[in-house]
Amino acid sequence: MKVLVLNSGSSSQKSSLYPMDETLPDDPPTPIWEGKIEWRDRIAEAEIKNARGVVQKNRAKVSSRAEAVEQLLGTLTTGDRPALTSLTNIDVVGHRVVHGGPKYEGPVSLTPEVRAGIAKVSDFAPLHNRAELSGVPQIAVFDTGFQRRMPLAAVVYPGPYQWFEQNIRRYGFHGINHQYCATRAARLLGRDLNSLKLVTCHLGNGCSLAAIRDGHSVDTTMGFTPLEGLMMGTRSGSIDPGILTYLIRTGRLDGQRIDDVLNTESGLLGISGTSGDMREILAAKNKGHTRAKLAFEIYVHRLQAGIGAMVAVLGGIDALIFTAGVGENSAEVREAACKQLTFLGLKLDDAANRQRTSDRDIAAPDSAVRVLIIRAQEDWAIAKECWHIMRSLRHD
To answer: Does the active-site annotation cover 143?
Structure first.
């Protein structure tokens, strides 16, 4: 079985092709083809890697994201030793869908009814741009699914109860990766997942934390939308809602402009005035850029506060997990985040923290809390869900 995964993020498009056997491996396999696009204004920076580890990079101006994805998928069947002779060799396509709304929790086949339901809560587009994929089964895996079992105390906003009745509630996001990281952490630690209290830190362009107990998310930082919670690359995270009513009341901003400001002009970019990319923030900070330094300090302050809140909800912590682009690659962010957590008995191994490998423990041997770096494997998690659904359909 060949599974193509299309994983659309806020600043990137990732795609992977996995050959699936009758049994699933314990550890994530290397896909036979990987493609990634990072969006920078109207420039698409693409990186394609085949099974032999050969990397091809290109940078091009595109008229739309759809055009860039079309070009990316074309590399599956072209070039030196292509992964496929035809896109019709694909057995199933799995999509990461950010918002499942109140109706969708587990992975589902993308029937017309399901697509209509998804359209009500997101701007989801199937992304099967090429005609050859039109007849391939499509499966949606929801980022909100893992958070659906949170207790009502964590779900219901303290506004009028009618909000909750109208499905205005905390949904949480990044669930695919939070769930994967929890399972992976249990395997790395040699522990039963149901015995662990975990705080997972998904730190990328979008950022969120999850408090995981008994294998389930019991709290998270994102809410009704992916805007709530931590400071992010270009998103503000949580702010006083009175600021918004003030801006509207004084006629400074309307609803659409507020949406634009909070989502695309805030966070690291808004404070630093230079970039929403943590790599560039750190470089500028280390050169003495005052606002970049402030942006980093706000980011860390809110991350520490969020971790503390998650630990309080759990009533303790066995392991702190860092994942996604910033979480996996920034030793400086991990060190700063852990600096105020020594009261928990958490101790970093400085040398281990600065090594460039994932799926490992970077806590000191005598640390009471394990600290793990786990590579985000959303694509593999989605591929596994597709495998389960396709096998169940075959056995029905």
So the answer is: yes
